[in-house]
Structure formats: C-alpha cells, structure tokens
Design brief:
- The protein is 8% helix and 49% strand.
- The chain has a domain of 166 residues.
- The chain starts with a helix and ends with a strand.
- The chain has 395 residues and is mainly beta.
C-alpha cells in the first residue's frame, strides 16, 4: 500500500512539474533587464514572424526567455510594451532581430544630486528680443543645461536662479543681430544682485554654421563626464534667416548639438550629434510620399538616403492612449496584423482598428552605425542615442 501511494504521489509531482512550465519549447530570444526596470512593472515583450504571427509573449521583468514549439525564422520582430498606471500603452517594434539573440540591459547612470546654496539675480540692460533670431537671453550653470530665459521689461532681461554647489559660474548667451555673443559671471553667491550691460558681451570664438532653407532652431551644449544628462548651454537660436550660426566655447571633451529645421517642403528635419563639433551642418536632398497608411499594410516612397525608419500609429486623443511605433531598415514595413491574446485582454484599449497613422521618421546614422546597432542599443539601454544622425520627420 505504501509503495502504491509513493508511486501515486510521484505521478502527481511529475505532472505538477510538467504543468509548472507554462511556456514549453525552445528558447529563441533572451533579454535580462536591470533592477530599474521594476519601475516599469506593467511591461511586456513579444515576438512575431514576418507575417505577424505571434511566436511568444512574456512579462518584461527579470530574465525574459521567449520560447516556441514552432519553427522560428532566423529573423524575428521584437515588440516592447510599456503601460502607465492609467492604462495608456506604448509599443515599440524592432524588425529583423536575429534569432537566438541574448541581450543584457545595461544600468542607467545615476543623476548626481547637487546641494542648493541660494538664489541670485542677474539683470542685463540694453537688450531686447532680436527680430532676426527671435531669441531670448539664456542662462546656464553647466549642470542643468538651461536654467532660465529672461523675462523682459522694455530693454532689460533678467533671471532669478537657484545656485548649486560647484556650479556657481553662470554663462549668459544671446545674439547681437545674427552674431552669437556671451558673458561669464563667475563665483555667483547667495543674494547676489548683478547688473551688466549687453554691450559688454563678447563674440563667441567658435561657431556652428547652418545653411538650411526654412525656419531654424537649435543649440549646442558642452558635456561633462560627471553629468551625462546636462551641460553648459551655449544658447539657442530661432530664425528665419539663412545662413545662421550657433556659438560655443572650447574646453569640453564632448558636445551635444541639436538643430531643427521646419523645411519649406513641409517636413521637419532634425540634426543631432554627441561628441565632437561639426562646424558646418549640411542637409542632403529628400522627398517622401505615403501610398498606404494602414498599420497592416504601410507603403511609401522616400527619395533620400537613410539607415532606418520609424512609423507611428496612435488612437489620437482617445484615453487611455495607445501609440505603436515600428522600426525597420527595410523599404517595406511588415504589417501589424494582430495583438497577442494575453495583451488584448489586459489592455482593452489596444485595438488595431482604432489606430490611425500619425507620421513617419527617416533616420540617417552618420557615425557608421547600422540599424542592428541601433536596435540592440534600444533594447538594452534606456535613452541611448547614436553619436550623429539626421532625422527627416513627416507628422
């Protein structure tokens, strides 16, 4: 009797073990997330083939292993879904990820907390908004990029700022006609009331030249190793004039350049670079036409060189909001034909028939990176961007 009972219990244990693995099959994709991903508790990851068939779906925490009992193609599409507390969803699909990829999400660098030491006010006389550049005076402490734009009263600009320990030198930038100018205010302390004339500002010794046809805005900032999210902001520009210039100072190992053009063709073009300075930013020729904007059959033509594109669909102003972006280097976008059943039941707002075309971006990586490089970084590093790129946006 005891032997029979032991056999019976063994059978129960065996079948329990068999049922404890809800996802049998061979592993074809692995992603290990870091501890910070726990903050995104309602996140999911799923894989599809080129026809849109769902291969597997799993919660997006810890070590995620996607498995399938079916034959998995050498190239798959990986979609990440994150959802906010209100039920809004954002989905990002990366097309053409190699099967059997094993990825480790890297940790984000901590943002250093700087001790506040007081407040001070800098007042600039003999300055008014420049009609040629539509620019405001900008104030920077070297930590948080831009800490203020002036409030104006006739021909005076001023800013009352919070001072941070170790960042007590303030750079003020502006434009004298189309020439970028600046002035340092070193060792600013709590309670300072500083007055200066705009006529004492110096011309920036270095510039980035921009020769685009359209409305131009942009900035340059100097980056430091201890604060990768901020830096010394050298001033921004907003102008209808071409050519235009943005000034900067030497002495930084890395710079962040951002230039935005509202082109006369109706497109928005964004140039971004982190690293060295490109002293003259040029723009290649481009043209775009969408011939089918449905999420299950997007078709387009683009006359221009690009590394990959990103197409966006959304449910507009409906709440909870849904945004789905598909990234690919291919000239045809694989159609999104279904939502995994495990997700459609959890997120009732995630309905393909409610998603409308919202726009497309064509991205040219200028640092030699490939789409696969970008996709792998996007899957493993929050917020990391290529060193240098141009984005052609149609939204």
């Amino acid at each position: 009797m005891k032997k029979a009972l032991a056999v019976f219990v063994g059978v129960i244990v065996f079948f329990s073990c068999q049922r404890s693995d809800p996802n049998p099959g061979n592993t074809f994709f692995t992603l290990t997330t870091n501890a910070q991903a726990i903050q995104l508790a309602n996140s999911w990851i799923f894989a599809t083939d080129k026809l849109g068939n769902v291969l597997d779906v799993q919660p997006g925490l810890g070590t995620i292993q996607l498995r399938s009992t079916m034959s998995v193609p050498d190239s798959i599409n990986i979609t990440l879904l994150t959802s906010s507390m209100g039920g809004s969803c954002r989905l990002s699909t990366y097309v053409g990820i190699p099967k059997n990829s094993i990825l480790q999400e890297s940790s984000n660098l901590p943002v250093p907390t700087k001790l506040q030491t007081g407040k001070a006010t800098i007042t600039i006389s003999d300055y008014s908004e420049n009609p040629n550049v539509g620019n405001l005076l900008t104030f920077s402490d070297g930590y948080s990029d831009i800490i203020g734009k002036y409030a104006t009263d006739s021909h005076t600009g001023f800013e009352t700022m919070t001072l941070l320990a170790g960042y007590d030198s303030i750079l003020v930038s502006g434009y004298n006609d189309l020439t970028p100018v600046y002035r340092w205010f070193p060792r600013v302390v709590d309670g300072d009331q500083i007055n200066a004339s705009f006529s004492t500002f110096l011309t920036y010794p270095k510039t980035v030249a921009i020769d685009f046809d359209g409305v131009i805005s942009g900035y340059v900032s100097g980056l430091t190793s201890d604060n990768p999210w901020g830096g010394l902001f050298f001033g921004n520009i907003f102008t209808f004039k071409s050519p235009a210039m943005i000034g900067y100072l030497d002495g930084y190992s890395r710079y962040s350049t951002y230039i935005r053009l509202n082109a006369t063709s109706g497109a928005t073009v964004v140039y971004e670079k982190t690293g060295t300075i490109n002293p003259h930013v040029s723009l290649p020729a481009f043209d775009f036409k969408a011939t089918d904007t449905m999420i299950n059959n997007f078709q387009f033509t683009f006359a221009g060189d690009y590394t990959y594109n990103c197409v966006t669909w959304s449910n507009g102003t409906t709440t909870p909001s849904v945004t789905w972006q598909v990234y690919t280097s291919k000239t045809s976008i694989p159609g999104v034909v279904s939502v995994p059943a495990a997700l459609s039941s959890r997120f009732p707002s995630l309905r393909l028939e409610n998603l409308k075309y919202a726009g497309v971006d064509f991205i040219k990586l200028l640092d030699g990176s490939t789409f696969n490089d970008f996709a792998m970084k996007s899957l493993t590093t929050l917020g990391q961007q290529p060193v240098e790129r141009i984005t052609f946006s149609y939204h």
